[in-house]
Specification:
This protein has 418 residues and is an alpha/beta fold. Helix content is 36%, strand content 26%. Strand 16 and strand 17 form a beta hairpin. Helix 1 runs parallel beside helix 8 and helix 2 packs across helix 3. It is globular. Bound molecules: flavin-adenine dinucleotide. Flavin-adenine dinucleotide (FAD) binds next to helix 1, strand 4, strand 14, strand 17 and strand 19. The site of flavin-adenine dinucleotide (FAD) has 40 residues, from helix 1, strand 4, strand 14, strand 17 and strand 19.
């Protein structure tokens, strides 16, 4: 069979949020690229469907009109104004994402079924600088000299694509990390999650607060209830894989048991209907710094293990890492330097400078969640103390304040009401 030869500057494998984020900014910088995905869009992705301010920030930077489109599309996107933490003892604490809300303030977060979000992002990649192959099969990846070659088949045609740079945006089970980098030998910290769509669930907040229920049997993981447009909800559980293995937990049974019997949760599901199969997928957590690049390649999103260890948020970090990878690429093109040493400085170091603190705090919080009594204590104090609630609310945007959560002095101050 004849093999078609294509040349470009960047090959991106994966057209989820990480791949789309990379593509948006490569287009902004005038860099030609080819995006390859094995699926055909719209495609589903198992997820909680909750997007934080970071997702909105990157989309807005890519194109403010796109964010306006999202905020105006009530059928697919539901604005969310806060989060409800339910402590292991069942007490609920409502924390708004912002304390300065006016009628003009856009909602800091939103929920959207991934099938809709990823399709929205996929369609926005369209540009004369971006060639997309969906439903394509990548057969080989190799590096020769200072070039990467990707062998691919698409609609029965074989291609060999050559470029100085390859971006692995191919998710948790990605092939770039495995085949190309040798990073596969670095152990990942995994969580596993289940997702179910329900209709007819009651007791959802009027401001669409997302809910995290820290049930004792799931610590340091949680059960979530995220309201979606059309009165639907995304319900799921997320927990460390290691805990599932050690305690031999049947996650599906555990989730359905909570839905049936938990005194806070069960009554709300009395007339709710499961809409689809319950599905599971892994979350590669950013528990510690890992190499994200090497000669002629960078990893983004889940392929780079960038899921927030506390919140389980990965969409925002996938888009954000894509944006930073494109910025690094702009410098690499200017300097014609695609070496591991250059990319470590231009990409890895920049990413960890911007996200490192946040990820370190989240990793520490994730560990603290093992202590039920501490969780109950903070939530119970905050329910009674408006100033503590405000402090926790401000932690969504103020990293120094959030860092307090790692320090014993924060808990002592609460204890003595200072
Ligand atoms: C149960 C669960 C709940 C979650 N809840 C949330 C949440 O509420 N909010 C949040 O922000 N994050 C959440 N996450 C994390 C979030 O889903 C991921 O972090 C996010 O999808 C990462 O985006 P990505 O682009 O890196 O990878 P993906 O979204 O996985 O996209 C990767 C793309 O690469 C393609 N691909 C893979 N292999 C190949 C190949 N060999 N060839 C070609 N293409 C390939 C895939 O088809 C896919 O389109 C959750 C995850 C799970 C599992």
């Amino acid at each position: 069979m004849a093999v078609l030869q294509l040349d470009t500057t960047v090959i991106i494998i994966g057209a989820g949020p990480a791949g789309a984020g990379t593509s948006f900014f490569l287009t902004k910088y005038g860099i030609p690229h080819i995006v390859i995905d094995k699926e055909t869009f719209p495609r589903d992705k198992v997820c909680g469907d909750a997007c934080s301010g970071k997702t909105a920030l990157v989309i807005n930077r890519a194109n403010p009109e796109w964010l306006a489109e999202i905020l105006g599309d009530a059928q697919s996107f539901l604005p969310s104004w806060g989060i409800t933490f339910v402590a292991p003892d069942g007490k609920a604490l409502d924390i708004p994402f912002t304390l300065q809300r006016t009628p003009e303030t856009p909602a800091p977060g939103f929920t959207v079924p991934r099938i809709a979000l990823d399709d929205f992002l996929f369609r926005k990649m369209t540009s004369p600088l971006c060639t997309i192959f969906e439903g394509a099969t990548v057969g080989s990846i190799e590096r020769t000299g200072d070039l990467v070659k990707v062998g691919m088949t698409h609609n029965g045609t074989a291609y060999e694509i050559t470029a100085p740079m390859l971006i692995g945006a191919d998710g948790d089970k990605g092939i770039v990390r495995k085949k190309f980098s040798g990073l596969d030998t670095i152990p990942k910290t995994y969580a596993v999650g289940l997702r179910a769509y329900y209709e007819g669930l009651t007791g959802l907040s009027k401001d669409n607060f997302i809910e995290l229920h820290f049930l004792p049997e799931l610590l340091p993981g949680y059960l979530w209830i995220f309201p979606l447009p059309g009165g639907k909800a995304n319900v799921g559980v997320g927990i460390l894989s290691e805990v599932v293995r050690k305690k031999k937990i049947n996650l599906r049974e555990q989730m359905l048991h909570a839905i049936k019997t938990n005194p806070q949760i069960a009554p709300r599901f009395a007339h709710a209907k499961l809409q689809d199969k319950i599905q599971g997928w892994g979350l590669p957590l950013a528990m510690e710094r890992q190499p994200l690049s090497g000669d002629n390649f960078m990893l983004t999103g889940d392929a780079a293990c960038l899921v927030d260890p506390f919140s389980g948020e990965g969409i925002g970090n996938a888009l954000y890492s894509g944006m930073l990878a494109a910025m690094a690429m702009q410098q690499a093109v200017e300097q014609k330097n695609y070496s591991a040493a250059f990319l470590k400085t231009a990409y890895d170091d920049v990413l960890y400078k911007r996200l490192g603190d946040e990820l370190r705090i989240s990793a520490a919080l994730h560990k603290l969640c093992r202590y039920q009594w501490l969780f109950n204590f903070v939530v119970n104090k905050a329910i009674k103390s408006p100033s503590l609630r405000n402090t926790i609310s401000a932690m969504f945007t103020n990293m120094d304040l959030r860092d307090q959560l790692r320090k014993p002095s924060f808990y002592l101050k609460i204890l003595f009401n200072r």
